[in-house]
Design brief:
Largest sheet of chain A: 6 strands, parallel
GO molecular function (chains A, B): DNA binding
Protein name (chains A, B): LacI family DNA-binding transcriptional regulator
Oligomer: homodimer
Largest interface: A-B, 76 and 75 residues
Number of helices of chain A: 12
Strand order of the largest sheet of chain A: 2-1-3-4-5-11
Organism (chains A, B): Streptomyces aureus
InterPro entries (chains A, B): HTH_LacI, LacI/GalR-like_sensor, Lambda_DNA-bd_dom_sf, Peripla_BP_I
Domain HTH lacI-type (chains A, B): 5-59
Structural class of chain A: alpha/beta
Chain lengths: 339, 339
Amino acid sequence: MARKPTIADVAQHAGVSRATVSFALNDRPGIAEETKARVLAAAAHLGWTPSHQARGLSLGKAGAFGLVLAREAEQIGADPFFPAFIAGVEAVIGQRGDGLMVHLTTPEQEQGVYERLAARRQVDGVLLTDLRRDDPRPPLMRELGLPAVVVGQPEWGGGLTAVSLDDEPAYADAIRRLTDLGHRRIAHVEGPQELRHAHRRRTAWEQTLRALGLPEGPVLPGGFSPEGGARATRELLTLPEPPTAIVYGNDLAAMAGLSVAQELGVRVPDQLSVVGYDDAPLTRYSYPPLASARADARGWGEAAARALDAVIALGTAAHVELPPAQFVPRASIGPAPRG
Amino acid sequence: MARKPTIADVAQHAGVSRATVSFALNDRPGIAEETKARVLAAAAHLGWTPSHQARGLSLGKAGAFGLVLAREAEQIGADPFFPAFIAGVEAVIGQRGDGLMVHLTTPEQEQGVYERLAARRQVDGVLLTDLRRDDPRPPLMRELGLPAVVVGQPEWGGGLTAVSLDDEPAYADAIRRLTDLGHRRIAHVEGPQELRHAHRRRTAWEQTLRALGLPEGPVLPGGFSPEGGARATRELLTLPEPPTAIVYGNDLAAMAGLSVAQELGVRVPDQLSVVGYDDAPLTRYSYPPLASARADARGWGEAAARALDAVIALGTAAHVELPPAQFVPRASIGPAPRG
């Protein structure tokens, strides 16, 4: 079996230095067109191809996964999910020297970003998070021939391999715990309902209350943001008959809710119980510490990266279902006030 | 001026289809070595080079910047700097379809990550954040020939182009404000001192107190983390003569400090004034809202990306100095308690 030609072989054959070969092959400025042509001819003659260089220089493999986030930077900054998820992905792909190409974009520009990633072969596959109602991405991935894994429930992905982690049990546990503590007016401050996981959390709240034979307390939009959570909490606490417990779509909204309660002189948990979702690093340092729900975002990233590896290698892979999120009770919940 | 040759020209010259040319040039499997050699020879003859394809497919341009973060995922998750900084970078490079290759690593493995990024030409340049004392990265970048910009003070970068945003004025303003309010025992909970910006914040605190003729209150490590901030605060508040004000290295440590104060029955701001740094999204929803310092992290990302563009194009660029961080007074500071 013949030895594969190296850059040194090409240099010798073309009668130039190795640096010149490298510059010519990489189309760097400062090399005469004639020299470039001679180097390329020598490379062709010897059968040298880019894949004989470091793997990342091969045009066949990008050595990267893509993560395109169509959210406001502020929202991502305050969300503990993404850094932990990214750390999990990197734990799998970093060892082999692969990277994660991150794009922050808007829902309007998102399609163009995927099209460019595919056209320029900058990534070997993509991880789809924040699935939306009628999400255009699963059909787009098929159209672009871009390997993809859905980070969410299988039914959100239109046939793509899904890696899911269920929110429902944590919500159901939180609401059962609140009813055990005597709460009957349990409100929900929901996330943006076009986001599948926000809608799923709201549905879990509804169905659990219904199963327990309790009325659905008021539900208000909180946008997964501190601003939205604060606004909704102010509205709920100034109702003629305010709720005795509020379950929020995420920790950001819940933390802002805690501060509004304190500002209005509503004591937590004596007069109001508060539950968040995400177990963000700061929640255990809120006062009182925030009851929340913990999902293994890092493990989710690892599982998603492994699934995407399988999809890239085999064209498809089985759905993966991770252990569900767990309710984390803390001092922000207590017995319902009398009366 | 002759028209630049296209894939179609190469295909015609080699007597194969355009798809075959594309497969051969991209070293995809399923093409005979002989065909591949014929395509490469045709490409060489016509003077076709990869840059005549979509720019991202060119071996000359990766179409990406690199950001290698040697921090714990949890720390990055809670830090509002990175998402805003990344959003700023993307605002500059996203429009032309370029991406940001993010690596989460450890200080031990960081060198290998940069070496791979350079060897595989996955990025056109890198942004260096979180500069450390005796940081090995500036000399490494020169050794690797990897264009780089330092996100921090010029003296941290060993001659690399730096894009800086000064912390000092905000710290000095905060301390002057506290002394105007009668505080004389002003403690500092510092970030990891091997980080240049953490050390700079500590130095700003020291120098401002000295300039005002005040004793340096105790300084304790807070590690930029909620855990570290909570531990340091507990220690400070149980001193025989506790400080009347604490200035923290960042908001995370300060938020945890607020909760420890509440837990110990120390009223903020009546008995203790608290100042953070970063103006994280949640700080205005802490109770009481946290006085902090605001830096334009998004603008910093934009400026750093533009500087890196210049370094890539020209080999070097002038340092850039952005408007300094601004002190943001809020209800967590008040007059020093009497006695």
